[in-house]
Amino acid sequence: MILTGPAIAAAIQAGEITIDPYDPARLSPNAYDWRLGDTLRVCDGDLDAATPTEFTEQSLPAAGLVLEPGVLYLGVTLERTGSETYAQMLNGDRTIGCLGIWVHVSAPLGHQGHAIRWTLEIRAARPVRVYPEMTFGKLVFLSAFGTPASYQQQPAKYATTDGIDISRLYEEIPGGVL
User: Fold this and answer.
1) Whether 121 is catalytic
2) CB atoms within 10 A of CB 37
3) Where are the alpha helices (DSSP H) in the chain?
């Protein structure tokens, strides 16, 4: 079940959900409008699942940065979010979709206990200028059924992520870089 905006606000007040920084004006009927952080990693060269991705990192200037088609950008949310009570689902939204930006298509689930600034996978259909702290998507909170198991307590490779992180699939591939 998806929490309503008032239920998200109540859960924040009760300490069951963390959104930092939090702005109650960013609540919508069933979500929280999250923002793009101020840093992007540009993935360089060919990508290989058996090796760490090479990248250059750059700050987003206040005047914005033009995203180019055919380039994989890794970004980060401005907000750090988490909950031991609720799972999270991070999505882009119509406002950026209409600009031809695809964001975070492959990994929208935030497990219970995963308190992070989300790594974002970003692609542009056409050249488009983006700005730090612009609204970039919606975050929903979901009730979970069954015995909770905090992600932070699992032996998961992304449990300590706090910002932009590259794929670590190479840790699982025989012969991959460790």
Assistant:
1) yes
2) 22
3) 5-13, 94-97
Residue with tokens 């360089």: 44
**Catalytic position from the list 16, 54, 84, 121:** 121
List beta partners, residue 122. 73, 103
Pairing mode of beta strands 31-35, 135-143: antiparallel
pLDDT in tens, 23-42: 999 999 999 999 999 999 99
Q: Is 119 within 8 Å of 167 (Cβ atoms)?
A: no
* pTM value > 0.70: yes
Among residues 124, 92, 87, 119, which one has the least CA distance to residue 105?
92
Distance between first and last Cα of the chain: 39
Q: H or E segment at 75?
A: strand 73-82
